[in-house]
Amino acid sequence: MSNHNRNTDAIREKPRAQSKLTTRRKVKGCFECSRRRIDCDRGTPECQKCLQRGLACSGLGTRYRFNDGLASRGRLVGQKLPTTSRPKSPTVDSKASSRSRPAPGLRAIPDEQEVLPLVESDSSNLSPCTLSSLLDSQGRTALVSDANLSIDEGHNDVEEISHDDAALVLTQPMPDHLDAATRSLYTYFAINIAPIMAVIDRGFNGYRDLILPLAEYDPLVQKAVVVAATEHLASKLARYVLPNPNTYNSVLCGLRLRSQTMVPYKDDISMTTLLLLLVCEMISGGDKFTQIYGIMRGLIRSAGANLQFSSSRLGQFVEIQTLRVQLIAESLFNEAEGSNFVHVQLEKSLEFLRYCQSLHPEHSVLMSLLFDIMTQACRLYVLRASTDPPLCDTVQLVEDFKQVAEKVADYEHVVGHHLLLWPYFVAGAESSTIPHRRYFSQKMQAMYRTTRCENTLKAMHQLDRIWEAQSTTRWTSLLGGPGQVFIM
Predict the structure, then answer these.
(1) Sheet strands (E) in 337-431
(2) Which of 11, 45, 79, 299 is the most buried (most CB within 10 A)?
(3) What does pTM read for this prediction?
């Protein structure tokens, strides 16, 4: 064989040898792990590798970035959309002289270090670009607004926007008659608040599919949604976002004015607004719970047998959610009346679980566990408030509750997180052994890390005070008062 033929055969064998080399399959994880060139453990909502390093993990969803101008590259870079409706406001990174003056409608925090302008809950005073950039800084929150979106080309290995491993589908496009800031807060509400309020966030969600469309044309509900979204956003970006108390107060004034022309307990909009204000108290852990629920409680009591909700789907949803709120709020409002309400109205108040069961018959096992865990929590509360048995007599009851809670834990990716806060609080307050107290404290800590609702932290602080006085005082008598937090 000639040298030419041998060389030709050798050249042909090289690709065959290279083809036998196998490359390790890339682990599709979060953006932070991909930048650090390590394999992500794909934990949700944040991976453990980022948490161990103290990094803010963006999660497994597609990353969106907002452009302030028309484009991020090409000849349109830096160009702005023309506007005739509002004067130009100074941008954050313009000049040193303009940095010292906050944008119109934005409040500045007195600080020695320079910070970004603050976003208030009044959406009419929000700067769309500023709000979009602040929302986008929360990597695990995927937002869709009218701003120009730029998907990170280096991290597009996840095809759909996810929330706790469940794809969130907004069935209708956001309305054009709302400003960009309000649309962004609507989407934030749909992604971050509506899921934690649901029993099972699969498909239909009343807070997202009924209340948000109502807020599109009703200014009172719209303000309440904006306040709730801003409160939750402030828990993540406390340095840059401050809820505007004037907006909160304007909602209360709007309710007062509306009550002069319409009967509140026959008005779905008034009751919906009160529900949203209670959601705000849940998120912020504020001290206005007794005031807001006192208004709702007074309306319901004054109506008596005349209490009516509309026959629409919204009216049905508001009625069910009102009963759900009553079950929990009455136990936190007054011990004697609360124990009587929980004992008498338990079956009626669990209608929100039956409603969810009709929507999700495929989760019959889970729904049975949820009925069980809510019923056991109510019985623990009534038992302590009415008979005050020795602590040793309820240890087994708490253990039975814990066993059901461990079964429910297998469905954590399905159950709305804040459904279980009140049952955990009741069982934790009744706990007299160290293992039981530790178990429910850990459950509530995990819940706070997921939802970032301040009422969870304050509920844990209240548990500490209950445990200190447990040997001498009924813990149910320690609930209520002006500073009581809405534990829901």
Answers:
(1) none
(2) 299
(3) 0.66
